[in-house]
């Protein structure tokens, strides 16, 4: 299934209360609630998208401490 990595990346983003938007073949990472500001992108591959989500996850954890 070719879309499986993309689906898993989207589920990872949803878990962190983020939203993945796909425009013109590229992904953009946005907040899901609140201001819904753009957090990064465009990301041209699922691998770079997953790394960006992981960086955002790390930043969220740093903000807690």
Percent of sequence in beta strands: 25-35%
Structural classification: alpha+beta
Largest sheet: 3 strands, antiparallel
Assembly category: single chain
How is the largest sheet built, in terms of strand order? 1-2-3
Over the alpha carbons, how many angstroms does the gyration radius reach? 12 Å
- The tally of beta strands, per DSSP, is 3
- Helix count, DSSP H or I runs of 4 or more residues: 2
End-to-end Cα distance: 39 Å
Mean pLDDT: 93
Instruction: Give the number of domains.
Output: 1
| Bulk shape | globular
Which ranges are low-confidence, i.e. pLDDT below 50, for 5 or more consecutive residues? none
Percent of residues in helices comes to 40-55%
List the secondary-structure elements in sequence, H or E: HEEEH
């Amino acid at each position: 299934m070719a879309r499986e990595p993309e689906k898993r990346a989207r589920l990872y983003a949803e878990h962190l209360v983020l939203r993945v938007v796909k425009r013109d073949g590229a992904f953009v990472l946005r907040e899901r609630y609140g201001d819904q500001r753009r957090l990064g992108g465009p990301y041209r591959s699922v691998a770079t998208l997953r790394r960006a989500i992981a960086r955002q996850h790390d930043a969220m954890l740093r903000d807690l401490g």
